Amino acid sequence: MVYQVYPRSFADSDGDGVGDLRGVESKLDYLAELGVDVLWLSPVYPSPQDDNGYDISDYRGIEPVFGTLDDFDRLLAGVHERGMKLVMDLVVNHTSDEHPWFVESRSAKDNPKRDWYWWRPPREGVPAGAPGAEPTNWTSFFTGPTWELDETTGEYYLHLFSRKQPDLNWENPQVRAAVHEMMRWWLDRGVDGFRMDVINMISKDTALPDSPGGDGSAHYLHGPRLHEFLREMHREVFADRAGATMTVGEMPGVTVEEARLLTDPARAEVDMVFQFEHVQLDHGPAKWDRTGLDLRDLKATLGRWQAGLADVGWNSLYWNNHDQPRVVSRFGDDGRYRVESAKMLATVLHLHRGTPFIYQGEELGMTNYPFTSAAQFRDIESVNHHALAGDVALPGLRAMSRDNARTPMQWDASPNAGFTTGTPWLPVNPNHTEVNAAAARAETDSVFHHYRALIALRHSEPTVVHGDFTMLLPDDPNVYAFSRSHRDTELLVLANFSPKEQRPDLGFPWWDAHLVLGSHSDGGTTLRPWEARVYRR
Ligand code: ISL
């Protein structure tokens, strides 16, 4: 299983209020105790931090606030000493506007790096800078147009995310070669792979057409050359390191059919993809318009991914990352049944077929932050959304803001939760007095120890890794039930997604089977509120 560290919010070693690499290093024994196989580090490269490091200005260094390359090498050695692996975040759909490549590119129309980015003149007949002069009508992920006028040359550059994140032009072979070289540089340094940020956006429709409503995604998601670019990258970077690396491509909008191709080992593209369907089920027209979750939709979606990648490819499994609200607040109950529902969600995730990805604090059942005002948000997406929509946006932000995931890791009950001795860059959740690693480690029936048990089960029981997946009771609105079978072992997983007792009818007395693991220590003929059980048959 892979554990994601968001370095800014994990552990601060020097009291400046921002987490750092030495902080991560100081927690490696904790990660080993949990049973982590692979650590994924969110970006630690030099960056103006417009999007918390997803805007990189130097691909071969470490942002001073996080430490130095020496600190990085020490961390990597510490990871390897404990038998774990480390994957870096690879953000190459775009760079920072402060990256030397872009600084050169914007300097003149005839600069050799001009074509490394997407430059276009204003729309014909509309003066530069006037409303509607943008080369397309696309809206960026962080609100506003995807085009920014650069006064130096009077042309616009494309940025699917913030204006400080210009998109690289992957059509240019020099760009691709520079990225490959940089990837080999990190692998030679000893890193074990990459999580590839929005990697299904690197191939665009070069005609850059307008889109009805301004959603340009049809022209930049899964573009015509995506497979070609990924196969080339595999050949240039990974082919001679066969088997020793891991890759996972983050791909908003990816479908099961595309994922089968992308993760088919015979095609040599990526090992896994992050799909987004299950984390959009509670969105209305926009992510801020939160609707409830209908459990039947979740089962239909995840079941389809299990079936779709059963014979070819491989699933990634996740509830949380640095972009998603906390799952216990979202799909569970972060009040009375926080512990029960956190364990239940963990059980369901870990027993699916695929590689589980756990986001820091998830193993403690960390919750959303009780935001009360707009001034508390730091995330560019949240800040921009509020600037556009005003205070009516607050309920949506409170439920869905990415800052919910980014408050500091809760290590203990002390005033800053043991995260920093200074002032944390984002406030610590007040519930850290109760929800924290020290308390969870001390208590045998905590969420933490349940994660440990699930991770250990995956390591010891081949059925969890290899077993076939069969969804049961797809129409039950409260119970998530499935089985996994491998050789002569069958594991039956039952999970109650409701605060009411449930007695699912599977047509046989399932409660008589051998209880392998559960959110409660004992079994019984009914599932208690938010309870999960794993039986062996
Ligand atoms: O969280 C989102 C906005 O609702 C997603 O659309 C997110 O922007 C998308 O998943 C891409 O995420 C990745 O690339 C972004 C960065 O801001 C995210 O943190 C990163 O995970 C741009 O690099």
TrEMBL record:
From the Swiss-Prot or TrEMBL record, give the protein name.
Oligo-1,6-glucosidase
The record's comment on protein family reads: Belongs to the glycosyl hydrolase 13 family.
Q: Name one Pfam family in it.
A: Alpha-amylase
Superkingdom assignment: Bacteria
Name the enzyme's class.
Answer: hydrolase
GO terms of biological process kind: oligosaccharide catabolic process
Q: Which residues form the Glycosyl hydrolase family 13 catalytic domain?
A: 4-406
Q: What is the originating organism of this protein?
A: Actinokineospora spheciospongiae
Q: Which PANTHER family match?
A: ALPHA-AMYLASE FAMILY MEMBER, OLIGO-1,6-GLUCOSIDASE 1
> Which one of the record's GO molecular function terms can you name?
alpha-amylase activity
EC number of this enzyme = 3.2.1.10
Per the UniProt record, the lineage of the source organism begins with:
Bacteria, Bacillati, Actinomycetota, Actinomycetes, Pseudonocardiales
Q: Which UniProt keywords apply?
A: Glycosidase, Hydrolase
